[in-house]
């Protein structure tokens, strides 16, 4: 999953901020600014060189910032559900293998 920053008129890609999906905290990629709900710091990464930089992202409207935060929260929930589903699958497979071994 990525936060993509692109030119509003040309849609040309400016930068991408990869969001972790390996259990690493999301704040390693997107950090809210302490004293404002409308500003964030993004860790953008160049795909070709893997070099990274930190850039600021600000929203003029609080509702836009709220939508961005909601999107990040939904991604966090998705990762949690995915992790729970994988654990349930592993438990189910372990139970099936245990039952098959007893035959």
From TrEMBL:
Pfam families: DUF1681
Biological process annotations from GO: endocytosis
Gene Ontology terms: cellular component: clathrin vesicle coat
SUPFAM superfamilies per record: PH domain-like (SSF50729)
Domain NECAP PHear, chain residue ranges per copy: 2-96
Identification of the protein by name: NECAP PHear domain-containing protein
Organism per entry: Chlamydomonas incerta
């Amino acid at each position: 999953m990525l936060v993509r920053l692109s030119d509003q008129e040309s849609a040309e890609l400016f930068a991408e901020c990869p969001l972790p999906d390996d259990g690493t905290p999301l704040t390693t990629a997107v950090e809210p600014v302490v004293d404002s709900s409308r500003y964030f710091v993004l860790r953008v990464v160049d795909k070709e060189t893997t070099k990274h930089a930190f850039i600021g992202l600000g929203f003029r409207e609080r509702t836009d910032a709220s939508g961005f935060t909601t999107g990040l929260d939904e991604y966090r929930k998705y990762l949690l559900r995915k992790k729970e589903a994988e654990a349930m699958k592993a438990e189910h497979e372990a139970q099936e293998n245990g039952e098959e071994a007893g035959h």
